[in-house]
Amino acid sequence: KINEWNGNRTVQFHVMDVKCDEFQLLDLRNKQVYEQNREKLIHATLYSEVTETSEISTLIIDKIPSSKEQLWALIKEHPIQNIVLAPLPNHVTFAPREKFITVYKLVKQHSPIHLNDQMYSYFMRIGISKNELLFILQVFFEIELVIIKNGSVFSTDYQMKRDLSEAPTYQSQQSKLLMLEFFELTTWSELKNSFINAREEITHES
What we know:
The structure is a single chain. By secondary structure, the chain is of the alpha/beta class. The chain has 7 helices and 9 strands. A 4-stranded parallel sheet has the order 3-6-5-4, with helices on one face. The longest helix is centred in the C-terminal third of the chain and has 18 residues, at 168-185. The chain is elongated, with a radius of gyration of 25 Å.
């Protein structure tokens, strides 16, 4: 169009949109930036809302994938052209081994323990949050070190040595923690290369 200013007339281009032929990774991990651009993403699909029948062109990663394998499988199943990185929940319930040992000793010494407000307060005073306690007890339950019944936790006489990583809940939360670190600590260029490599591997496989 013609731009007129100060008596001068010049031709100018007003670019409304640009089509890019290569894979795009849009970094909106900053919450404020994401909210500012959210209305522009009306045709994108949220990772948290993906179903087997979803048709995905642009994917918004708004939740922590269970694993890289799960994310790569999603990319393989759908013709995803672009990916948007949204702010992720910054908390995954996990606990170091020392807290597992503390809880196990207390359960063995005082079994049964009753999961009430008083008990949660006690564990909080020794540095174990309610979410951490419930996570630890669920792991113990899955590897048969405790029995949880009617809001009470009983120790068992199970003698065989069990590894915490045998519990599905432990595996799941550990994997999510690794994925959260992957998205929070990896630079945009490193993330884009990871997605490009995954897409290329998928293309070669097919």
